[in-house]
């Protein structure tokens, strides 16, 4: 996986943390002053080195019986040379193809052991591999990681190289096939001089990938994958003594590699303006502005990260308020400081509203940059961005592993600054940043030259003696007990049901009001009404407009999110324990007192229509818009686009009265349940809720009934084609209707789907990605629903393999219900993965909240979660095979294929799989 545009999130957020600090931000305005204090947790760690040079960092966190294993190799695309680009990322893929002592797919033992957050990423600076495993599986994980570090060279074959070369090339095609996807190669080349280590993309060029030889990749491993060029972080249910013992055992006998010279800063500041124009098949004009800035770890890099947040973090930020909210000349704007080892870059991206020229957009951006540079930010603004980052950091600390978790934070500090606790120094940099500093750093780096891209729509080391048995992988061992927090229930005086899973010590509280509404409720209104109403509720209350609301939340380090699924709508609050009372008050105001102002409505509707156009420009989201009506029929409550955005026609006809009506009918206490997970108990929670929402009453009118009548499935295969001229990939999605999530066979069906296509090592992905390398990924999915639930398969494939891929997908399902049914080995693998991954899967408050609300949304009992182990253990092979044979119908699938029809339509017609119909992007027959 390529990290193309790595943001400073892990480091800039870390900048606000230090051991024992509590951040106090005080701001004065002409009207008032405020002071907000947030208590921040600390990351305790110990660092040591093995005799062979491997750096090991250990952090103990006994919250859950899991350990995050994170290995960073100090090599990225910057270490390549022209003509041999893409090696770092290609090698990352190869590292998942087995080792000398383990011949299979690297993911398989981890899936069996119940690993979570497993992946590998490459960027310009480094390559990392990480996973979070149950504590009992730690020996397995360390055996695997050490085997590919010390025993990998002999496993690389030409066949494996060719296979992964194809996968990477499809990944490159998939990225370039996205709207605006070709911009990044242009910016990369234009921003840095030829030969600069950042002057090529991490994914490399097609030519260089084709030219990569077996000797080349072996030389890459010998040069860069020695233990003396790596960092190992162990974070979680482990102590230092255990970590030292296991690290020495598994990694100590690996010989060191050659010494590597550390790269030095090379900012290559731009001294002139470079402007480029390009066209793409995109719905909106986009302006991208780029400046080269200082490298990570410097005071100015931290200050530039503050500049980025001041410009476009939240609705009160300079550019959002000017471009999107006030002038309404942009649908969206984002700013991020891409801080790296040699140099950084600050990006501004804005999508122009239809009819607005990029020149006008650029003038407005430059005016705001000039104002901020000349006047500097107010104390209020600086306080807000620091509070936001502190809150974000606290949420990161819930996870010992994964992207941005504690293991990532420690590894980043060690890599970039030779100091895992680098965030301490970063904190001081940002803490001492003044308005004058912001003005100074902007003048130095944002005034001399930049790249502008306009995108218009087309028309001495030793080793120890080995003590590890490399003939077999250590078993995962017995799973340590992991008990989910008990759910307590109360009913408020107004009838609202409240469920609480208390998790003391997490410092955060996650809350979600779930309403029995969703897209299905749109059937009584207009498509998109549910999501639009929820979105408008975030635009302000009767006492606070959207800017004031966003500012109030930011001061508290809180966030409110809204959304809908087919059956439910939800309003979620993410709050810090320190500020829970005021945070609940804001959420209660949003729920009870939405303003639905006409000015906000007009602005949001305009942006909403832009987003629908963007959906139609993206193949997969186009398929998600078209497929529902083909499966359910146009009159069914589930036939609305699965993006939840509705249609241009329905959104255009919508008015504020429609939103008020939806809110009154559906957003009410007798139609809701509130789920709370986090650092609070019922004794404290209930009085807070009674105070803030206890007086919220339901209207006297009854709750409308949703029509979830059974849809009649077609009798034959249907294929629908949507043209995307010049597409370099085709997007394939197929679906059929299955019984409700409430069906007693639901869990067995979920197992069946996981075997077929629900995970990386499932049959579909092994076929199209690993065996044939036609696609970057092929999967299947079961969506939850109260009514009939959809089963879908999907893949993006290279254009010339569209028809063969259709055949292979159908063949896989056909064989699954006949000649090659689910095997006992596959069933055991899924069960082991599910049972062993539970601790990692529910590590965070948000993850547990999502699991609970997911069951409530489809009226399933919580015993499905709390008795999960017993329920899963009872599933037999016969159950899985029988439910597959009864329900999966490979000859009655509805297919949607989006691609260049002049290239793919003739071959699809020749397949004679079923009736072929051409549709436009709205799903209407042509």
UniProtKB/TrEMBL annotation:
Residue span, Peptidase M16 C-terminal domain: 213-388, 655-832
Keyword hit for Signal: yes
This protein's UniProt keywords: Signal
Gene3D superfamilies: Metalloenzyme, LuxS/M16 peptidase-like
InterPro entries in alphabetical order: Metalloenz_LuxS/M16, MPP/UQCRC_Complex, Pept_M16_N, Peptidase_M16_C
GO terms assigned for molecular function: metal ion binding
Domain Peptidase M16 N-terminal: 56-189, 497-619
Signal sequence coordinates: 1-22
Database matches in Pfam families: Peptidase_M16, Peptidase_M16_C
Superkingdom of the source species: Bacteria
Name of the protein in its database record: Insulinase family protein
């Amino acid at each position: 996986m390529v990290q193309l545009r790595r943001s400073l999130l892990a480091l800039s957020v870390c900048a606000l943390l230090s051991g024992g600090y509590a951040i106090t931000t005080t701001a004065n305005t002409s009207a008032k002053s405020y002071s907000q204090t947030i208590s921040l947790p600390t990351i305790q760690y110990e660092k040591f080195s093995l005799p062979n040079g491997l750096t090991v960092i250990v952090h103990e966190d006994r919250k859950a019986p899991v350990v995050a294993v994170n290995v960073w190799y100090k090599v990225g695309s910057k270490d390549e040379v022209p003509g041999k680009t893409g090696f770092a990322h290609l090698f990352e893929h190869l590292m998942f193809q087995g080792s000398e002592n383990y011949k299979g797919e690297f993911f398989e033992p981890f899936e069996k052991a119940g690993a979570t957050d497993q992946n590998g990423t490459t960027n310009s600076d480094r390559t990392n591999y990480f996973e979070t495993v149950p504590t009992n599986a730690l020996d397995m994980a360390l055996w695997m990681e050490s085997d590919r570090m010390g025993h990998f060279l002999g496993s690389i074959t030409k066949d494996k190289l060719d296979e992964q070369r194809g996968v990477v090339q499809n990944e490159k095609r998939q990225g370039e096939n996205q709207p605006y996807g070709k911009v990044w190669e242009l910016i990369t080349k234009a921003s840095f001089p030829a030969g600069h280590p950042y002057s090529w993309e991490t994914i490399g060029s097609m030519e260089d990938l084709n030219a990569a030889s077996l000797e080349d990749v072996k030389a890459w491993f010998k040069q860069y994958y020695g233990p003396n060029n790596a960092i190992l972080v162990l974070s979680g249910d482990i102590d230092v003594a255990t970590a030292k013992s296991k690290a020495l055992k598994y990694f100590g006998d690996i010989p060191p590699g050659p010494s590597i010279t550390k790269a030095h800063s090379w900012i290559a500041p731009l001294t002139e303006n470079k402007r480029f124009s390009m066209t793409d098949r995109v719905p909106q004009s986009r302006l991208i502005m780029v400046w080269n800035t200082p490298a990570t770890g410097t005071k100015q890099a931290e200050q530039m990260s503050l500049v980025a947040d001041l410009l476009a973090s939240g609705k009160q930020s300079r550019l959002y308020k000017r471009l999107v909210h006030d002038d309404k000349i942009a649908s969206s704007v984002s700013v991020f400081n891409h801080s790296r080892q040699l140099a950084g870059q600050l990006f501004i991206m804005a999508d122009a509203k239809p009819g607005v020229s990029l020149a006008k957009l650029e003038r407005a951006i430059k005016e705001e940059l000039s104002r901020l540079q000349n006047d500097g930010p107010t104390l209020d603004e600086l306080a807000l961005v620091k509070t936001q980052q502190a809150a974000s950091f606290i949420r990161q600390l819930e996870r010992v592993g994964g992207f941005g978790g504690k293991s990532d934070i420690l590894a980043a500090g060690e890599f970039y600054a030779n100091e895992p606790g680098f965030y301490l120094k970063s904190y001081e940099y940002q803490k001492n940043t003044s308005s004058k500093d912001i003005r100074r750093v902007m003048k130095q780096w944002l005034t001399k030259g930049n790249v502008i891209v306009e995108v218009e729509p087309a028309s001495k080391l030793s080793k120890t003696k080995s003590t590890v048995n490399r003939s077999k992988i250590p078993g995962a061992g017995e799973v340590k007990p992991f008990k989910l927090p008990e759910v307590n229930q109360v009913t408020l005086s107004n009838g609202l049901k409240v469920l609480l899973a208390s998790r003391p010590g997490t410092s955060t509280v996650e809350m979600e009001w779930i309403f029995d509404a969703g897209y299905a409720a749109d059937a009584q209104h207009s498509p998109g009404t549910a999501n639009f109403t929820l979105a408008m509720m975030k635009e302000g209350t009767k006492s606070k407009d959207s800017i004031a609301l966003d500012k109030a939340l930011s001061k508290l380090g809180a966030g409110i999110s809204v959304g809908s699924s087919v059956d439910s709508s939800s309003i979620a609050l993410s709050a810090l324990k320190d500020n829970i009372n005021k945070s609940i008050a804001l959420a209660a105001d949003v729920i009870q007192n939405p303003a639905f102002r006409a000015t906000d409505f007009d602005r949001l509707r305009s942006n909403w229509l832009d987003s629908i156009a963007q959906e139609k420009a993206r193949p997969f989201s186009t398929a998600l818009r078209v497929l529902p009506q083909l499966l359910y029929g146009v009159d069914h409550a589930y036939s609305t686009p699965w993006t939840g955005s509705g249609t241009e026609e329905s959104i255009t006809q919508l008015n504020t009265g429609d939103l008020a009506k939806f809110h009154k009918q559906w957003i009410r206490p007798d139609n809701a349940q509130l789920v709370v997970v986090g650092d609070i108990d019922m004794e404290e929670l209930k009085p807070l809720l009674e105070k803030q929402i206890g007086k919220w009453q339901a209207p006297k009118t009854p709750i409308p009934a949703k029509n979830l009548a059974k849809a009649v499935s077609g009798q034959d295969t249907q294929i629908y084609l949507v043209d995307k001229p010049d597409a370099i990939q085709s997007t394939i999605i197929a679906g059929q209707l299955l019984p409700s999530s409430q069906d007693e066979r639901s869990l067995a069906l979920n197992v069946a789907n996981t075997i077929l296509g629900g995970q990386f090592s499932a049959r579909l992905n092994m076929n199209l990605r690993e065996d044939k390398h036609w696609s970057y990924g092929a999967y299947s999915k079961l969506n939850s629903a109260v009514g009939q639930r959809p089963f879908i398969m999907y893949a993006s494939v290279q254009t010339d393999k569209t028809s063969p891929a259709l055949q292979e997908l159908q063949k896989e399902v056909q064989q699954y219900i006949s000649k090659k049914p689910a095997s006992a080995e596959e069933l055991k693998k899924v069960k082991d993965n599910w049972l062993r991954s539970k601790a990692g899967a529910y590590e965070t408050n948000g993850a547990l909240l999502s699991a609970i609300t997911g069951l409530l949304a489809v009226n399933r009992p919580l015993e499905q979660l709390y008795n999960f182990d017993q329920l899963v253990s009872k599933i037999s092979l016969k159950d899985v095979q029988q439910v597959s044979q009864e329900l999966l119908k490979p000859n009655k699938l509805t297919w949607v294929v989006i691609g260049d029809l002049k290239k793919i339509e003739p071959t699809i017609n020749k397949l004679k799989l079923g009736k072929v119909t051409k549709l436009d992007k709205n799903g209407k027959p042509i």
